[in-house]
Amino acid sequence: MDSNSTCSSEPVGKACRVVPCMDAVVKVFCVHTEPNFSLPWQQRRQSSSIGSGVIVGGRRVLTNAHCVEHHTQVKLKRRDSDTKFLATVLAMGRECDIALLTVNDDEFWEGVSPVEFGALPALQDAVTVVGYPIGGDTISVTSGVVSRIQTVPYSVLASSKLLGLQIDAAINYGNSGGPAYNDRGKCVGLAFRKNISNDADNIGYVIPTPVITHFIEDYEKSGEYTGFPTLGIKWQKMENPDLRNAMGMKPDQKGILVKRVEPTCPTSGCLQPYDVILSFDGVDIGNDGTVPFRHGERIGFSYLVSKKYTGEKALIKVMRDSEVHEFEITLSTHKRLIPGHLNGRPPSYYIVAGIVFAAVSVPYLRSEYGKSYEHRAPAKLVVKHLHALAESPDEQLVVISQVLAADINTGYEDISNSQVVLFNGQPVKNLKNLVTMVENCKDKFLKFGLEFGQIVILETKTAKAATQDILTARRIPSAMSDELKA
């Protein structure tokens, strides 16, 4: 029996019940200060939250990334202590919803052993979730079983699907980041969210150990979180026999059809639309996009890709024009035209004559239109979010987010979240590119070409002179965010 487990007092000869280590579970207190995308030159009022975490090897603590997102202060408290210790965030993986913390105070680590990780559980295996959910201040324990194992999107910020465990144990606010133990007292995952649909009951999700160890090893290799790689393609299933015949596939061949290849991805040099990917690293891919997982189970092939690390090589077998080819590809992270997060950076903005320019991101859309932004945001932005691909690594979708009403911009006040595609006839690649062109403009007019042929024109000298007056009147400290000043 490992040192992190104890045995309940039962008569000799009966099975010994393994109790998971409770002392390694900590309560996480975080003060958050979120950016204000509507007024990007300032921050929102700070707020507080609680979560759970677990002590692992190397004087480190694991919790969920969303528990410490936009943190200004993080404190940890052990079960057997009345002291809250200041913590430092070492790394955050927003796609996998994991954060790694440490505490410099030696007192925090005295007399506690880190958890031991167990193997990926099977269906119907018992799990015990430990944490500090709402309803009390002391530690809480809930039990259930593993009801499903599949690849799932961890959040709206995720660029790919990762392996996840679905369990029927109760997971509530505050449980996030707490460990899930198997019946041998080994940690098999971290609780991270529950299904709040009205049509679902007792469905919670756990980040399994393969994802956790990938995150930790990624940090140990590079000193930072580099992410989970993707193939950089859009694909479709090949379950229709006529589709397979049209692509020249033999009856014993299976695979997926490449629809689009991301221009910024390394695979764009070898993969093409209408290629059929037959296998990944020697593992055959089914017509439904799944691969063999364990005995009697199949799982999405993205699981094989996510097991790799950024920059690693992989061998893919591709059929093109009825001929089979093999390519060695370099895997990289996903570059989205509208990024899922800003890696903790403040939002970028630029103001000219009261016209506020911004780069669109998922946090920006959530701030403007709420959690249901995919249903409430303008269709033109939603389509770009879901389907548009970045043509270059530094490409951004730049919009006029709002117009601060003033005499000089009369007639433009109602423009909101319209994409800026041209400036004085030149394409706008990103916000910094727009700033450079405007600040260096020697023409008589500033001409901003918006989508659908709309234009905004201002006299150059008057616009630049009016900018400072508008900033002063609105008490805005600068016409642009700090990273654009360089």
From TrEMBL:
Coiled coil: none
Residue ranges annotated for the Protease Do-like PDZ domain, each copy included: 338-482
GO biological process, alphabetically ordered: proteolysis
InterPro entries xrefs: DEGP_PDZ (IPR041517), DEGP_PDZ_sf (IPR046449), PDZ_sf (IPR036034), Peptidase_S1_PA (IPR009003), Peptidase_S1_PA_chymotrypsin (IPR043504), Peptidase_S1C (IPR001940)
Keywords, ordered alphabetically: Hydrolase, Protease, Serine protease
Entry GO MF terms: serine-type peptidase activity
Any matching Pfam family: Trypsin_2
UniProt similarity note: Belongs to the peptidase S1C family.
PANTHER family: PROTEASE DO-LIKE 9 (PTHR45980:SF18), PTHR45980
Protein name: Protease Do-like PDZ domain-containing protein
